[in-house]
């Protein structure tokens, strides 16, 4: 069976994908809209003759077949905001120069629609599954994955699953994620009256500003110094003092080395010119214990392992003013590292500067053995469609696979040689790759339906 013939309804799939993309389901701004995208999928599933269930306002499933066991594919239909700089309408499907464009076309509405049509293709071709197959759909993935917490609080855990919400081939290791708030009860800086950077902890801030109370000589010195440093710095006199606006480069917190952290660079420039003491204990900590490094070496937590690579640290948000003095760190640690040791080390180092460190979010790492049955199954599906075995890889990113308690992994939809721009302007995938992904997903579900044993 070649992938062109795995189903004959590619056109109706893309039409339905267009309808799904037109629902602006930005969960961080409009949860009701994200819920509508979920409802749309469930009603499509129902029209196709599947059993559907809405489990909570932001989660539900579409089920095919009968049997004791359950296998699943997990997708999300919420998206991040469109942002600026699109060359097409973000909330619609546009085909242009051999690519499909639209917010969510890769992450993750396209794969959700492909999975639904894969189930339909199996049903239409008369496959009688040996077990139940579920498309599990969430609508709060982009805002912390509480959707799957709700879902699995009442629904059974599948014995094997995959989530097409990353790259090909198979993601066998996802680093642990620790998000930590470091705070001081008050701003003890004598020079710095305000500092602000970042909105999301899981992103490298590309903008930061500081308000300082300094003399003209100090100001001139600061400008000369900043001119020679990475990033861009703008100076402005205001009623409240000198305002310095720093611009860096945004990146995801799982790859902080790919960005330029506007916050840590600005702190470094201020510290080099004025000394750390006048910047207060929080900035001293950020400059000394983290600095411009993203590997945690100054904190004494850098480490690395073979399955998942090196630890990373990102300073995602800093907020200092009259009332607040805190920063948020995002640490991605290797699967074999000891998270409590990392937390203790950060706590100790923060308390040395009189600061308090508190874990506000902890997602455990995921690691699957290469010979696990679900890995063998996905390998086979990929090989059948692509004619070559998939690569196994690790990521610092997080997917629904973490919620599966080592029963599933991330698998597709993006191919390594395709720049898909997820969470960015012009999110897109080549038509060829989208067809290929749909074929692989269909093949994986067919194997899940027909395999004698999945555990
Ligand atoms: Zn996603």
What would you note in describing this structure?
The chain is an alpha+beta fold. Helix 6 packs across helix 7 (280-290). Strand 17 (304-305) and strand 18 form a beta hairpin. It has helices spanning 10-21, 31-47, 109-124, 146-154, 216-227, 262-274, 280-290, 339-352, 373-386, 431-450; strands at residues 51-56, 59-64, 70-76, 94-96, 99-101, 132-138, 160-163, 166-167, 170-174, 176-183, 192-197, 203-204, 207-212, 232-238, 241-247, 251-252, 304-305, 309-310, 312-320, 325-333, 356-363, 366-367, 392-395, 408-411, 413-414, 428-430. Strands 1, 2, 3, 6, 7, 9, 22, 23 and 24 form a nine-stranded mixed sheet that branches. An eight-stranded antiparallel sheet has the order 14-15-13-11-19-20-10-21, covered by helices on one side. Strands 4-5-26 form a three-stranded antiparallel sheet. The chain folds into two domains: 3-173 and 368-450, Aminopeptidase (3-Layer(aba) Sandwich), CATH 3.40.630.10; 177-363, Alpha-Beta Plaits. The longest helix is centred in the C-terminal third of the chain and has 20 residues, at 431-450. It is 30% helix and 28% strand. Zinc ion is lined by residues 76, 107-108, 141, 165.
In short:
The chain has 455 residues and is an alpha+beta fold. 30% of the residues lie in helices and 28% in strands.
Topology:
Elements: H1 10-21, H2 31-47, E1 51-56, E2 59-64, E3 70-76, E4 94-96, E5 99-101, H3 109-124, E6 132-138, H4 146-154, E7 160-163, E8 166-167, E9 170-174, E10 176-183, E11 192-197, E12 203-204, E13 207-212, H5 216-227, E14 232-238, E15 241-247, E16 251-252, H6 262-274, H7 280-290, E17 304-305, E18 309-310, E19 312-320, E20 325-333, H8 339-352, E21 356-363, E22 366-367, H9 373-386, E23 392-395, E24 408-411, E25 413-414, E26 428-430, H10 431-450
Parallel strand pairs: 3-6, 3-7, 7-24, 8-25, 9-23
Antiparallel strand pairs: 1-2, 2-6, 4-5, 5-26, 9-22, 9-24, 10-20, 10-21, 11-13, 11-19, 12-16, 13-15, 14-15, 17-18, 19-20
Helix pairs in contact: 1-3, 3-10, 5-6, 6-7, 9-10
The structure holds zinc ion.
